[in-house]
Protein 1
Amino acid sequence: MSNRREFLKEMVAGAAVLGTGAQLAFGQTREAGKAKVVIVRDAKLRTPGPKPDEKRVAAMLDHAMQSYFQAQNPVEPWKQLVRPGQVVSLKLNCLGRALSPNVALVAAICERLQQAGIKAGDITVWDSHSRDLQAAGFKLSTDPGSVRFTGSDTTGFETAAVSYGVVTTRLAKIVTQSDLVINVPILKSHNLCGVTMAMKNMYGVIDNPSQLHGTACNPSVADLNMIPEIRQKVRFVIGDMLTAQYEGGPSYRPEYTWNENGLMIGEDRVAIDHTAWQIVERKRAEMGLNTLEKAGTPAYYIATAADAQHRLGTNDPAKFTLIEHSMA
Amino acid sequence: MKTMRNRVGVAVALLLGAGLLFATGCKRAASAFPASGTITGWDKVGDTRSFSADTLSQYIDGGADQYVDAGVGTTYTSDYKYQGTIEAVVDVYSMKTPDGAKKIFDGDPAIGSKTVELGDAARLYASSVVFRKGRNLVRITAFEQGANQADALMALAHGVDSRL
């Protein structure tokens, strides 16, 4: 994989991590038309304690966003991503409870969105079940004047069904009522479809996910992401890889988790999932486990999402740029 | 004719017996959750929830399929808290047959675990315990790490084991 990809590794000044306002020189040139995936890792994320340091989490987010958008300050990327007056929601994946998007990461995203001109009341942080959100450490709130934290089981689904390919479903109202949905998934294995990161997280925006798990979720995942509201509104991924899981998912299985201490961001959901898949395979190999395919849980849906019928993105490493940063 | 009647009678008796065993097993699984204070340091938080094979995906999403494939009947789950700090969950998957519980148990990689004496077979990991007993598969998962966690998890696991 590394021979075919463009790896740009960059050490970041410690001053930036500590938020002293130092300007970062990213230096990458965004190649027109070529997808990009940015990964930022921080080996010191958990020092001194076992939990991620909140300031370092926020610094990682800033660094990843500035790298991706080639921006010189932390707010500028968000101004490229959103416009004042828009309704923005963050779709999390809290099924794993302890293996859910980091609370400080979500807080940092909400803060930057507001600094970019989005009103707090126009931001909704959500997942399928309010109970899961709460168990993951988020305080439920429906106060219209502040950021809302809720589940689609509370806010409901559209009456009319939508379809593409093998998928017929009803969308969560939060999706249809948002101008932009930021996908904030978790990296973990999945005992049916191999790996779950960006595209599979869309199973949490519909009312009948359990009907779409057959044949390794293929082509269901790709078809679901083709539904116009999902394809057009869920345009950016901020993947939480602080802790990831290489076996036993999607349920939380602490015995199979590891600290990747990273974030992965990008617009190309297929390139994100392909990269995520490779990370899980690498960890499985390190732990002496079979590949996902040999284990009977192939991630076929990723190639399907890239095929001529779907064209949701690229799974060809030659066609996207992977940029990896390490925080100093 | 008499032989036929006898055969039907035996079949009905076997079916009734199997049904009774299943119902008894479900009742046991449903009451396998120690009440607060009965295991030192552990408090039961909230009510025990149950999910049928049809509704299990509401609890564990795509994770449900492997249990359904292995013949899960009812799943029971309850939250616990140890000394007010460590949150944990106890899941009891009541399968239709002991083979179902064995299939799930044997399918888990044993990486980083040690074998412990509990039920018919058990593994202790850093933050979890999994064991099977008859047709029940039990997972106890801690959501934080703390001092003496392994001992605490084992104490709770023994409490569940003794009630199955």
Protein 2
Amino acid sequence: MTEPDLLLEQFVAAHRAGEDPDPGDYVDRLEGARQAELEALIDAYLARAPRREWDPDAFATSRARDVADAVSRSLAGNAGTWPVLLPQLRTRARLRRDEVVHRLAAALDASDREQKVGAYYHRMEQGRLTAAGVSQRVLEALGAIVGAGADALRRAGEEVEPSLRREAADAVFARTATPDEAYADERPDADGDPVAGTATPAERDEIDELFTGG
Amino acid sequence: MSGFRRRSDDELSRLSDDALVGYIGDARDAGEAEAMQRGIEILAYGLRGDVVVRVRRKLESRSDADVEIVADQVIAGAMLAAFRGESVGEFRALLNRILARRVADYYRSRRGGAREGPLPSEHAGDDEVWGDEPRAQEEISGIWADDAVERALADLSPAHRAVIELRLAGYTSKEAAEIVNVGDELPVGLETPMTADNVDQINSRFRHRLRDLLEEAERSGDPSQDPSENDDD
């Protein structure tokens, strides 16, 4: 048995035993072409390996839970993968949502209307604000805060599948689109979210325009 | 009446990826929001650990935060694409294609103008957050290693590919031979049952081809091998 085969066998055995082996511990024992070969073989194994066994307790505290909830929101919303991406970006930036909102309002010269900016941002994270309506200025300001490109944010906000969204909306919103406590004292809209984007034409201000005017 | 039957967590855990995706779709069609959500949870939990490991290897010295973000994008992207009905019967293949594409996008954004975030050097002293500087282009050829596996597989006959897929999935040659011999009919192209020695020989040729492709990729860094090409996620 060749060295890559032996190491691959050891890796697979550890993985099948429910351990969490680090490929680097195996790959780093080789050099050059054999290292690249083992790297490719371990990756090919992991690409085909059975799913991890379901563990509801572990799931409850894992990031998989956030992903699952975000997928549901994306399916039911109209903001593409923003429900997945935006919380991740602010996590990476080590910012709480209220901090993002505070900075975003300041960047938009709207510190006096921070609550309204917050309501709109909440809808962005919930997948409940049509991405096409959000202005480039907002995306550039938000991108600068969370460390992402405005164009990347725009692409991520493209709708998943409009027809599917319509089907899934009724079934999923009731469970997944829980209003954020930070905005619990705001007047809810018809879907139970803090009010935003519901202004009449006469009431619309610059903030409405920035988040819904395109 | 929809005929949808809600399954227990144990039942869902035993379903294949494709069967679980199908169940989630059925739950959605039946308006069974909680059943759909549970299916999504079990699928996400079951896949995420290995996806994180794979992404970490491909991004290598990147920060944990970047790895987590790319991994979550892969899982979410695969699920959302699957629910668009683009991948009936091939969810894992779809996930693997999306993983390759997201990693390629990550590097492309680093070496092009449209980078996703500040460079580490813009956060001096905060390496924990941002990791290392992007590597030179020639250093990223490793991201095409999985493409080399796929290309080597594509050279095989259906019967030979079947046993190599099993070998790649961690089965021994003896187990792989037994699995493909099960049933009344032999796999297409085989006149006699497969033996462990046969599998060893096929695997040896496959590995030789794989080594050639990896060396070729290392030498050329050929963009034509970019795994994101022809990706329609």
